[in-house]
Specification:
The protein is 77% helix and 0% strand. The chain contains four helices and no strands. Helix 2 packs across helix 4 and helix 3 crosses helix 4.
């Protein structure tokens, strides 16, 4: 839950960096809704993260700090980036639902967020397709390639981060619950 909180905070920062540049009222309205959803997700995941720590009887720790952003976005590259990230978020949240099976409170919020992420994935995809029809096919293609490269780098960073801590988790007796329907331990 801590990493989910951080991911939502990172999404907030990315949208906030660009939203003030948007003059198209329809797109601005969609980005405002997207931003509101991300803020709600960050709040809910953060609250759930604290509650889980309390339930586990451990000292409350803040979620991981957001990663420094290396990339700056304009509206087109932001929408392409969000399209890619929202698609990944849906799959990730579905996996988290499996990990947290048995923890009804967490699963409830994951399901609500999946619904929002599907909406975000749809609107970003539709906006990119609209720009293609308006004659920006090459710009959209380039933005999507850039978004996929950024996503690929982020994916490998997450994998290597996980691999780095895995030995400590195993030594402490926290084996991944691959075949269990019990929630993952803290």
């Amino acid at each position: 839950m801590g990493r989910l909180t951080t991911s939502e905070i990172e999404g907030i920062h990315v949208i906030e960096d660009v939203i003030h540049q948007v003059s198209d009222r329809r797109i601005r309205k969609m980005l405002d809704k997207h931003l509101d959803d991300e803020k709600r997700h960050a709040r809910v995941f953060g609250e759930r993260y604290k509650a889980m720590q309390k339930e586990a009887g451990i000292d409350i720790q803040p979620p991981p700090s957001p990663a420094p952003r290396e990339q700056r976005f304009n509206l087109l590259t932001l929408v392409a980036y969000l399209e890619t990230q929202e698609a990944r978020a849906i799959a990730l949240l579905e996996a988290y639902k499996e990990l947290f099976a048995g923890d009804e409170e967490s699963v409830k919020w994951l399901e609500r967020n999946i619904k929002d992420e599907k909406f975000h994935a749809t609107w970003t995809h539709m906006q990119l397709e609209r720009w293609i029809k308006e004659g920006m096919a090459e710009e959209v293609r380039q933005a999507r390639v850039q978004a996929q490269q950024t996503d690929r780098r982020a994916f490998w960073i997450q994998v290597f981060s996980f691999l780095r801590v895995m030995p400590r988790l195993i030594i402490r007796g926290h084996l991944p619950p691959l075949f269990s329907k019990q929630p993952a331990p803290m």
